[in-house]
Design a protein that fits this description.
Blueprint (H helix, E strand, L loop, with lengths): L18 H11 L5 E6 L2 E6 L6 H11 L4 E5 L2 E4 H19 L6 E5 L4 H12 L3 E4 L6 H10 L4 E4 L1 H11 L5 E4 L9 H6 L16 E7 L7 E6 H21 L1 H6 L5 E4 L6 H14 L2 E4 L5 H11 L3 E4 L1 H14 L8 E4 L6 H10 L4 E7 L7 E5 H6 L6 E2 L5 E5 L12 E6 L6 E2 L3 H7 E2 L2 E10 L5 E6 L3 E4 L2 E4 H8 L5 E11 L3 E10 L7 H8 L11 E5 L13 H10 L3
Parallel strand pairs: 3-12, 5-6, 5-7, 7-8, 11-12, 11-13, 13-14, 14-15, 27-28
Antiparallel strand pairs: 1-2, 3-4, 9-10, 10-20, 15-16, 16-17, 18-19, 19-22, 21-22, 22-23, 24-25, 26-27
Amino acid sequence: MLTTPDPVASAVTSAPMSREEAIDHVLRNDPRFSIGQTRIWGNPFTVFTNAPDNLQALLKEAVGNYPSRDFLIYQDERWTYSEFAAEVNRAAHMLTSELSVQPGDRIALAMRNYPEMAILLMAIVSIGAVVVPLNAWWSGEELAFAVNDSDVRVVFADGDRYTSLEPHISTLPVTLVGVRDASGPLQYADLLARSLDDSWPDVEVAPDDDFAVMYSSGSSGRPKGVLLTHRGAVSSIHSWRMGEEVAALMNPQAAANKTGLPAYLIVTPLFHVTALHSMFLRGLSLGARMVLMYKWDPKEAAAIVEREQITRFVGVPTQSAELGRTAEKLGVALTSLDTVASGGAKRPAAEVLQLAERFPEANIATGWGMTETNSLGILLSGPEYVDNPDAAGRLTPPLQEMRIVDEAGNDVPAGDVGELVVRSPANMRGYLNLPEETRETLQDGWLFTGDLARVEESGLIYIVDRKKSIIIRGGENISCLEVEGALHQHPAIAEACVFPVADERLGEIVGAAVYVQEGYDIDQDGIRDFLKDRLAAFKIPERVWIWHTPLPKGGTGKLDRKVLQAHCQSRDD
């Protein structure tokens, strides 16, 4: 393992390099980012040859480089890198001694952004077990589905999730452990108090062993468990680490101006790859100080940025916009920020310029990635983003390959629209318990993303549409088919069609058209009340158009989602 200096240690103060020159310079001169070829699951991939083998090795490297540096902060609780590692190791030994967890066992985490989420996650993967982060906004039924689907042995849950889960998993062979405000016979704090061994667990974890099952809402209805490996996660993290060096060579003056230590504010949930990978694990590898927020509050976020001198902020577009407006209202410049990035959804074009004006010293950035790619994908920042606010960006080097293909899988000409497919060792191993869906999505190492894209002559990639029936509400993926399935459970609803409705704050919200059978009298509120026990609150339609005749259909007799969406919205005009 190579010793890692502080980020951008290779930055020089000579003339700026082009992107291509900087990438080539780092690959030729920095052994941390040496690349080679290997076969994974029978397919050839470009890989980092000197990257850590697994996430425990990544943590060991960080602790070795930054032992006394502040690492994790939550309200008035603080851990240095060494203190965090000690608690991780105590939790790891607790898992084996108190709960008999073995390598390969799946352990679920159902909680908001508490420190225990980060500690337990690293403890689980350090002993070769597999973490299953559950969406804290799901209903009890949805949480129980994932627990059952992933064959979880132990669930650690905070108060609300404990209460939601308890009645649904009483018949399952699952141990439920309370965290923080949860009540129950088994408590994390009690179990941890009995574990005094803070030595590193000596467990062999191979690069291609699973580290997580992360659930992603897909177009097929039920969430799909995405199988992610240690090599996949480390490939993403190491690519971003290399990106720091490339950026420093492209803009050496900006790199020289960065005098403070990296500090990240985590405002999105750790059960998503935006927070877990591109913030927490990335920050861990770079020696960043990380502050967790339990719940989004723009005033509190602005105060934390000032107090902790936060350098990197990543949130859904709504959050970065609200941070900008709040900073302006409070009269604070938040000058410590060097990056204000968005993930999970596309920013409105006008907002990009507004953020650049509000944070003139910061890089305004955007990113495209998927759970299925360990968040690795496409990035765009700085003046190029301001000049091209509708673009997704450029493929993150150096491991990824990309194609744009037609329905037959053939490459389309430059500038034409087709499906984006990507290949890299960061791609998922497959979908849990879904071999057909895995074969459709992964073909010869290529991942078919379901997103329609085009590449301009400039090399910029534009995501133009989605093949999948997905709504992205404030960064949360919502399956139209899942919501339609819940609506069809209502005895009065004969037909239902769900579609996105544009929203200034959240990007998209859930809209639905329903055909109510004769003899029933229901309204929007009644429909939403019916869905409360069946869907997470964020999935419940905020706009419902009630039809008393069958919903209009296309020539094939099928509901045309886009036509019906336009028809419904025209009724409001």
